[in-house]
Design goal:
32% of the residues lie in helices and 21% in strands. The chain is α+β, with helices and mostly antiparallel strands and 273 residues long. Strands 2, 3, 4, 5, 7, 10 and 12 form a seven-stranded mixed β-sheet that branches. Helix 4 packs across helix 6 and helix 5 packs across helix 6.
Length: 273
Amino acid sequence: MEERLEFYKTQLGVKGLVDRGVTKIPNMCRYTPYEMINKLPPIADDGKLIPIVDLADPRPLTVRRIYDASTEVEFFRVINHRVPKQALENIITSVKTFHEDKDDVKKDSVDKWTAAVKGLRNRLIKLLSQGLALSGDRLKGDNYLGRMGLIGTYFPYCSEPNQTLGFCAHSDPGMFSIIANSSNPARASNFQVRYHDKRVNLEPVEGHIYVKIDDLLQILSNDRYKSGIHRVRANSYRPELGCAKVNVVVPFSPSDKLNLYGPLDELVDIRNP
């Protein structure tokens, strides 16, 4: 506990430790063997395990593919999503610059990214609703999507990647999340999802955006949709390769006006109590 308090007082963060040339990670950052155990071999996403959904396809086909992905894989990636390439690149660059140069994240980058992903949010929730045989408007509005977050995570080089994690395995509490990560063909992704007997790396692909189902949508759907369990590995790629890893996560969740803790009435029947 004392080590942790002293570290917080420095306000250096993990990036600060790297900049100071620390080669042994602090004890407080080490995970126990139980937490680090990895019986599932990581594999690259070849586009067959994590489905690709083309939002320009006919709506019935798109609804079906999103439904299948949300019930089986819990993650999918979208193309033809109407998020401008420049908005995607700028938000990644802004987060990277913020952590490396301590500059403020450019407001223009945030504003354009926010506007773009709100449009994508509206399209996705209609498709997700229709996959459950609900009206496309059933889950729209502040009651279900009233809050939007912006999480920019930065993972610098770790000298002992087998002793720690960027984030331990977990799921998230909201409706769903949109994920963009920095694309660099020189390295594999450090963002991993569990899929049956595999641990799949979410490989960054230029122009692709990942969508992750979260806990509340699983509850509302009466367990038809599954919340995605994921973790982030420590970054083993050396800094001279320019391989710091950036993930931008946008979670959507309900406003505080409504407490939602059970499945929708329309999705409860004798066969699905």
